[in-house]
């Protein structure tokens, strides 16, 4: 399903408005305070730039952190945006009842089973997070923690490949850029 008409644009704007309200009190983890909504907007921008036009995937990308990080429920998303969108968001939502290490391991294990839309969002999400780790990292993160994130992200993305070559190339370039600049900072 492609974005071709005003109804689709309206749906996208509705999702952006909804996500902005849900994330309104949150900031990204970086040392410079950035509104959280910038992140899902960046994720959908990365997808569009890579040629993704599926409307459900774009809307789910905008909403991808609302269930995991705000009090939004999947039922609310289904009522507002339909079952296709809420299903994709469910796929990219970690179970917060599990320990963090377990959740991270499950992302690697489950990646190959995800729908195409969920795989694309996973890759774009990791690109956005890695860019933040280089450009505006959380103050408390050591170099090792940043490198561990890069390593883990590559393992998750390994299970998401084969759908959009442009997006995968962008991920690979981002990892390359991140590891070069993170290790260059150490050598200085
Ligand atoms: Zn995210």
Report on the structure:
The protein has 188 residues and is mostly helical. It has one domain: Hypothetical protein af1432 (Orthogonal Bundle). It is globular and about 50 Å long. The mean pLDDT is 94. Zinc ion binds next to loops.
Indicate the proportion of strand residues: under 5%
Rg computed from alpha carbons, rounded to a whole number of angstroms? 16 Å
Strand segment tally: 0
Associated small molecules: zinc ion
CATH hierarchy, class: Mainly Alpha
Secondary structure: elements and pairs:
Elements: H1 6-22, H2 38-49, H3 55-63, H4 66-69, H5 74-81, H6 83-91, H7 100-110, H8 116-135, H9 143-158, H10 165-187
Helix pairs in contact: 1-3, 2-3, 2-8, 3-6, 3-8, 5-6, 7-9, 8-9, 8-10, 9-10
Bound molecules: zinc ion (ZN).
Zinc ion is lined by residues 39, 64-65, 125.
List descriptors:
single chain, 188 residues, mainly alpha, Hypothetical protein af1432, 10 helices, 69% helix, binds zinc ion
Brief sketch in words of this structure:
The protein is an all-alpha fold and 188 residues long. The protein contains ten helices and no strands.
